[in-house]
Amino acid sequence: MSIQIRNFIVILFCNQCGASVDSLIPPGDALLRAVCSKCGHIHYENPRMIVGCIAEFEDKILLCRRAIEPQYGFWTLPAGFMENGETTAQGAAREALEEACANIHLDAPFALISIAHINQVHLFYRGHMKEAKFAAGEESLAVDLFKIEEIPWDELAFTSVRFCLEKFTEDKTRHCFSFHETSLP
Amino acid sequence: MSIQIRNFIVILFCNQCGASVDSLIPPGDALLRAVCSKCGHIHYENPRMIVGCIAEFEDKILLCRRAIEPQYGFWTLPAGFMENGETTAQGAAREALEEACANIHLDAPFALISIAHINQVHLFYRGHMKEAKFAAGEESLAVDLFKIEEIPWDELAFTSVRFCLEKFTEDKTRHCFSFHETSLP
């Protein structure tokens, strides 16, 4: 789950003609955009989605220990940037396969988290594994199953992952899962 | 709700140095990216989010008649591209203000719709208006309140809007709202 790249690229040149861009508010718009000084092409930039899952096997949750920055060595849920051409569910399943070599059967959307200052929206599903088959993918140092009481709370990589695991723990305790939404500062 | 722009721009030049780009799979990646032939900058492209709402006043729903293409003249829910620096809820409220000059109090996320072939994810909230105060914004020909039996089903602009209104009608009928997810072809 590489959540801190891709977001803060300043556009300097037009991707259509290669000329320099100006930062200005186009007619009928309300926000500054990078507008080509030559061909006028407007470069819209919008938030990106991170998709992932809380995958259970029996009474345990699948976590990955990060092999990449940011938060190298910390634990996270399998998740990553949603790609063009896929659905949110396909993206979440793909990330679990890439990071944890695990086939996840997704059950339902579980949490939606806006992180406005880094232009991201995180979406996590609940899911389950039919067998305890997993391994560390390229971006993971280790992958393991954790009972709720074993979750390494002090070694979690991201606040969105913490939010998810807290809500999951609460819902699991009362045997009732709902959909959770929040925004993180 | 301008859902068919911004999505199919082919990147031809590097936005960091203005040189031409090549389409290739970077080391450690699995997908073709536009990679700068000179500075090596990788241009990631990801799905964009459309955020909107089903806003009620008493037993009526707020709809906007589009003053822009695509689907000029058809009815839609207030919605549009989520912008950097805002949360999904802030984006949904902003779009209602822009398109319908309406202040919406958002209640809960209602529907999440992946439309993979146009690289979009649509998120709709349920919300309500405290007074019947609205007007056509710049992108709307008209804005009006519709009882469920008055919804112009044959003149709806988008399949995601239809999905939302169908699910809303079902949930409303049984007096129980849940969160709905789907993908549209």
In short:
Chain A has 185 residues and is an alpha+beta fold. Helices cover 15% and strands 35% of the residues of chain A.
Model description:
Two copies of one chain form a homodimer. With 185 residues, chain A is α+β, with helices and mostly antiparallel strands. Chain A has two domains: 1-46, Ubiquitin Ligase Nedd4, Chain: W (Single Sheet), CATH 2.20.70.10; 48-183, Nucleoside Triphosphate Pyrophosphohydrolase, CATH 3.90.79. The first copy, chain A, is 15% helix and 35% strand. In chain A, strands 4, 5, 6, 7, 8, 9, 10 and 11 form an eight-stranded mixed beta sheet that branches. In chain A, strands 1-2-3 form a three-stranded antiparallel beta sheet, with no helix packed on it. Chain A is elongated, with a radius of gyration of 19 Å.
Observed structural traits:
alpha+beta; Ubiquitin Ligase Nedd4, Chain: W; 8-stranded mixed β-sheet; Nucleoside Triphosphate Pyrophosphohydrolase; homodimer; 185 residues
- Helix and strand composition category of chain A: alpha+beta
Number of helices of chain A: 2
Hey, roughly how much beta strand do the residues of chain A contain? 25-35%
Distance between the termini of chain A: 19 Å
**Quaternary structure annotation:** homodimer
* Backbone CA Rg of chain A: 19 Å
Total DSSP E strands of chain A: 11
What is the N-to-C order of secondary-structure elements of chain A (H for helix, E for strand)?
A: EEEEEEEHEEEHE
CATH superfamily of the largest domain in chain A: Nucleoside Triphosphate Pyrophosphohydrolase
CATH class of the largest domain in chain A: Alpha Beta
Describe the main β-sheet of chain A briefly.
Answer: 8 strands, mixed
Our count of domains of chain A comes out at: 2
| pLDDT < 50 stretches of chain A | none
CATH architecture of the largest domain in chain A: Alpha-Beta Complex
- CATH fold-level topology of the largest domain in chain A: Nucleoside Triphosphate Pyrophosphohydrolase
* Shape assignment of chain A: elongated
Largest interface: A-B, 46 and 46 residues
